[in-house]
Amino acid sequence: MWGFVFIIFLAVFFQTGAWLSIFRRRVRLPLVIAAAIAAYIPYSAAANVNIKLFTVVMNDMQTLVAGCTIAMGQSLIALLLMTGLQKRRSEEVKIPLYMYLAWVPPVLFPVVVASGMIFLFNTATGWNFGMLGLAYVAAVFGILGVLAEIFAWRYPLRESREGIVASVYLLTIVAAMFLPQIVSGEINADYATADYHAALFIIPCMIIIVFAAIAADLYRHSRKLNKYWSSKNEFYG
Q1: List of residues 6+ apart from 57 with CB closer than 8 A
Q2: What 3-state class would DSSP assign to 199?
Q3: Which helix (H) or strand (E) holds 172?
Q4: What is the band of 130 on the pLDDT scale with cuts at 50, 70, 90?
Q5: CA distance 121 to 111
Q6: Which has more pLDDT, 67 or 26?
Q7: How many beta carbons lie within 10 A of that of residue 67, not counting itself?
Q8: pLDDT in tens, 74-114
Q9: What is the three-state SS of 181-209?
Q10: Which three-class secondary structure string do you get for 28-56?
Q11: What's the pLDDT tens digit per position in 193-236?
Q12: Nearest C-alpha neighbor of 4 from the set 147, 130, 176
């Protein structure tokens, strides 16, 4: 179970880094600082949580189901809003304010950073909680800042970064659909002939399909931009 919790932890950080890359650096840096400060907010509560209670909560199947449901709900809503927002932007028509809710940060991020601090306080023995908390905040700031800068450097166009975020949300939906079944080992009665390994094989297949679609879309978009700028250069002679 802890392996899946660690995967979710990394996935939320990856998702948050991709989301931060959408914004310009002068907006991105304050957001990264705010995220690091938010990671310090549960300090007092985290210092008083017992590892046994934390383990019980983390091993509870309902905790995983609730987390996956929240992640899938936000991802579905964000994808729908992003589709409408980008369509209206391309048509150069007014964008309703509610569509900007597509850029709401990952709602699981506060839960993940609080869980990480609880785990750190209960496993790092012989260290002062104050120093551990500050080191944890610095690590959150560094990881998110580096991830956001990597995305911004690798995909200079904002539209490309928005496409990456949309793909991450799509991947989140797929993972949230199958992760509880994989963890519990329970297969739906309609698929009684399937086995655990067959269910587990679905995830990498979907990941390959999603990233292949991302690559194809980026290639098509880059060709479109090259044709556009070529025509502009020819026009201006």
Answers
A1: 63
A2: helix
A3: helix 158-184
A4: confident
A5: 16
A6: 26
A7: 20
A8: 888 888 888 888 888 877 788 888 888 888 888 889 888 88
A9: HHHHCCCCHHHCCCCHHHHHHHHHHHHHH
A10: HHHHHHHHHHHHHCCHHHHHCCCHHHHHH
A11: 444 444 455 555 655 665 666 666 666 656 665 555 555 444 33
A12: 176
Structure token digits, residue 146 = 């580096």
The first and second tokens of residue 114, run together, are 């609080």
Count the alpha carbons within 13 Å of 26 in the hemisphere toward its beta carbon. 0
Residue-wise burial string across 149-178, b where 16 or more C-beta atoms lie within 10 A, e elsewhere: bebbeebeeeebbbbbbbbbbbbbbbbbee
Compute the mean pLDDT over every residue in the chain, rounded to the nearest whole number: 77
The CA distance from 9 to 16, in Å, is 11
Higher pLDDT residue, 235 or 40?
Answer: 40
**Percent of all residues in the chain with a pLDDT value above 90, rounded to a whole number:** 12
Q: Which among 13, 15, 169 is positioned nearest to 77, based on CA atoms? A: 169
State the chain's maximal CA–CA distance in angstroms. Answer: 72
Half-sphere exposure of 167 (CA within 13 A, CB side): 21
Amino acid of residue 30: P
**pTM over the 0.85 mark:** no
Alpha carbons 34 and 38: distance in angstroms, whole number: 6
Question: Token digits for 6?
Answer: 């660690």
